[in-house]
Amino acid sequence: MNIDEVYFQIINKILKEGTLKENRTGVDTISVSGCMLEYDMKNGFPLLTTKKMAWKTIRVELEGFIKGITSKKWYQDRGCHIWDAWCNPSKVPYGHDEETRKRMAAEDDLGPIYGYQWRRFNELYLGREHKLPIREGVDQLAWAIDQLKTNPQNRRIIVSAWNPEQLNQMALVPCHYSFQLLQNNGKLDLLWNQRSVDSFIGLPFNIASYGLLLSLIANECGLEQGKLIGFLADTHIYVNHLDQLKEQEQRKPFGPSKINIANDKSVFDWEWKDARLENYKSHEAIKGKVAI
């Protein structure tokens, strides 16, 4: 089964079983509680073909996570604008009014978001201007990779971005909040947990990002790519994305693509340009507004 078919299993479940819900953004959703996505990486890299995806943006953001970057400008300088609208809420408290949105966009500090927790979990966050930590954090990603190399049967290889002590400093509370790595007969499986899922804009991005992370770690550890599995909690479609999804579902998927990763670099030295897709073809992009 190709990734587009797997994706639309989730979409059709929401449309069939979902209920209308209000939320903090002011844009209602059609939502279900609990979905599971499972994809075998042998079927090709999991980047949707029924709409054009921002492949460079996906790679840049993952590089930033792996490096623990907390600067908005770092992402922007590489052409990634996912984080433009948000910032550390302890610097500019979240709000919907135009003046607050301008101040949020102008603030560079994103706070201890995903990558900070992956690489420096619970290190006291004082902002980027403080170079020396007062409280050392835990490099979860380095530990996880070391475990795959030295103790591959370990069932406790989990990386968490959910840190209650620092949620009030994060530009966004983590949507995908943890992932687990399991080795099975030389194949690496990655299983991620997500509390909230924007199924039109966010989910295709999450699938490709974790598929890329699986590929990078498997390459680092000399393992084959196994299964990519997502456990999705509040899985929803914003009501202003319904027409776009209807259009997308009418499109016929293209064939699978293959990920090509430079073998001469560690995952910790990897840069976005070191991963390329072979034989990738997609339909044109379909635009949709992000609920902020």
Q: What do you see in this structure?
A:
The chain is of the alpha+beta class. The chain has a single domain, classed as Thymidylate Synthase, Chain A, CATH 3.30.572. It is 30% helix and 21% strand. The chain contains 8 helices and 8 strands. The chain has helices at 3-17, 55-67, 72-77, 98-106, 114-120, 140-150, 202-221, 242-249; strands at 19-21, 29-40, 158-160, 176-184, 187-198, 224-238, 258-261, 275-278. The two termini are 33 Å apart. 38% of the residues are buried.
Q: What is the topology?
A:
Blueprint: H1 3-17, E1 19-21, E2 29-40, H2 55-67, H3 72-77, H4 98-106, H5 114-120, H6 140-150, E3 158-160, E4 176-184, E5 187-198, H7 202-221, E6 224-238, H8 242-249, E7 258-261, E8 275-278
Parallel strand pairs: 5-6
Antiparallel strand pairs: 1-2, 2-6, 3-4, 4-5, 7-8
Helix pairs in contact: 2-5, 2-7
Task: Give a quick precis of the structure.
This protein has helices spanning 3-17, 55-67, 72-77, 98-106, 114-120, 140-150, 202-221, 242-249, and strands at 19-21, 29-40, 158-160, 176-184, 187-198, 224-238, 258-261, 275-278.
